[in-house]
Write a structure and sequence with these properties.
Layout: H1 3-24, H2 50-54, H3 60-64, E1 69-71, E2 77-79, E3 86-88, E4 91-93, H4 99-127, H5 134-155, H6 163-179, H7 192-220, H8 235-282, H9 285-325
Antiparallel strand pairs: 1-2, 3-4
Length: 328
C-alpha cells in the first residue's frame, strides 16, 4: 500500500468518524443567559441623562454567548425551535438547539464534505498516475503534515490507529474557530461545554490507549504508583501521598485542554468588541479610526490563534496519548 493510498483511506475514515461522532452527540448544552454589559455615555460625560446613556451601549455578552436564535444580515433573526426540558430526577436536560450547536454541526458537515470530496479527487488522480492538485492537494499536504510531524512522532510506535481521530479533532476545531471569525458567525469553541466535551473525548482516548498498551496491572500502576526498591514500611505512606497526585494529574490534562481552547477563543472576541465599543463610548471619528485599526490587527491575530489552538489541542492530545502508552 502506497503512502498516498493510505492517506486516502485515512481521510475517508476521518470523515466517517466525524459524522458518527456528531450523530451520537447531544443536541446542545442549555443556553447561556443574556446579561447586558452597558457602556454608557456617562462614563465620559456624567451629566448625560440615563436615557441618553442607555442608547449608548455595547452588549458584549450577547455576541460571544450562546442563544436560541441566529443573527443574519440586515437585522434578520432566526429563532431556533424550543423543546420541552427533560426532567431526570433533580436533573433538567434541555435539548433545544442553540447557536453554538448549529455552528458546531455546520463545522462537522463542512469537514466531512471537504474531505470526502478531497479523498475522491486524490483517488482519481492516483488512478491516472498523477499527484493531487489544487484544493484537494492542499488538504492532502496538510493532513500528511499533521500525521507525519505531529501525531506519529508523539503517539509513538504503532500509532496509526489514532491518526483518523486526531486528524478529525484538528480540522473540526479549526473549522469551528474560523467560522467564528465570519460576520454573523459564532465560535462554538468559545463555549466551555463544547471544549469540555472535546476534552472528555480526549481523556477517554488517552486512558483507553493506556489500558490497551499497559494492561490492567500496568494501568493501575499509573494510579497507585510505587517507586521500585521502596521499603515495605514506606509503601502505604507513598500510596497515600502519590495516589491523589496521580489522579489529579490525570484530570488536569483534559481540564487544561478545555480551558486553554475556550479562554483563547473567547478572549480574542471580547478584546475586539471592547475596541469597537470605544467608538460608541467616545463618539469620536478619531477614536473610531484608531479602534478600527486596532480591532483589525486583533482579528488578524485571531486568525493565527484559530490555527494555533487547533494545532496545540491536537499536539497535546498526541503527547498525552504517547506518554500514557509508555508510562512507567
Amino acid at each position: 500500500m502506497t503512502r498516498r493510498t493510505a492517506t486516502v483511506r485515512t481521510l475517508m475514515v476521518m470523515a466517517g468518524l466525524l459524522v458518527g461522532m456528531l450523530a451520537g452527540a447531544p443536541a446542545a448544552a442549555r443556553a447561556q443567559e443574556h446579561s447586558a454589559t452597558e457602556v454608557g455615555r456617562q462614563a465620559v460625560d456624567p451629566h448625560k441623562t440615563a436615557a441618553e446613556a442607555s442608547q449608548n451601549k455595547v452588549d458584549i455578552t450577547h455576541h460571544i454567548g450562546n442563544a436560541h436564535e441566529l443573527e443574519l444580515p440586515f437585522g434578520a433573526v432566526v429563532h431556533l425551535p424550543r423543546f420541552a426540558p427533560i426532567h431526570l430526577g433533580s436533573l433538567t436536560l434541555d435539548l433545544s438547539p442553540t447557536r453554538h450547536f448549529v455552528f458546531m454541526l455546520l463545522s462537522a458537515i463542512l469537514v466531512a464534505v471537504v474531505f470526502i470530496t478531497s479523498a475522491r479527487s486524490i483517488a482519481r488522480a492516483q488512478a491516472q498516475g498523477k499527484p493531487a492538485k489544487g484544493f484537494a492537494g492542499a488538504m492532502e499536504a496538510t493532513a500528511l503534515y499533521i500525521r507525519q510531524e505531529v501525531i506519529l512522532p508523539n503517539v509513538g510506535h504503532h500509532g496509526e490507529g489514532f491518526v483518523p481521530y486526531l486528524l478529525t479533532v484538528f480540522f473540526f476545531i479549526l473549522t469551528m474557530n474560523l467560522l467564528g471569525l465570519l460576520p454573523w458567525g459564532a465560535t462554538a469553541t468559545g463555549n466551555i461545554a463544547v471544549t469540555g466535551a472535546l476534552a472528555l473525548m480526549a481523556f477517554i482516548t488517552i486512558e483507553v490507549a493506556g489500558m490497551r498498551a499497559l494492561g490492567a496491572k500496568g494501568y493501575l500502576s499509573t494510579i497507585f504508583y510505587l517507586p521500585p526498591g521502596l521499603p515495605t514500611v514506606l509503601k502505604p505512606i507513598m500510596l497515600i501521598i502519590m495516589t491523589p497526585v496521580e489522579i489529579i494529574g490525570k484530570l488536569s490534562k483534559p481540564f487544561a485542554l478545555a480551558v486553554r481552547l475556550f479562554a483563547n477563543m473567547t478572549a480574542g472576541h471580547v478584546l475586539v468588541l471592547a475596541l469597537i465599543g470605544l467608538t460608541f463610548l467616545f463618539q469620536s471619528y478619531a477614536v473610531g479610526v484608531v479602534s478600527a485599526v486596532m480591532a483589525t490587527a486583533i482579528m488578524l491575530l485571531e486568525l493565527f490563534v484559530a490555527f494555533l489552538q487547533a494545532f496545540v489541542f491536537t499536539l497535546l492530545t498526541s503527547v498525552f496519548i504517547g506518554l500514557m502508552r509508555a508510562e512507567h
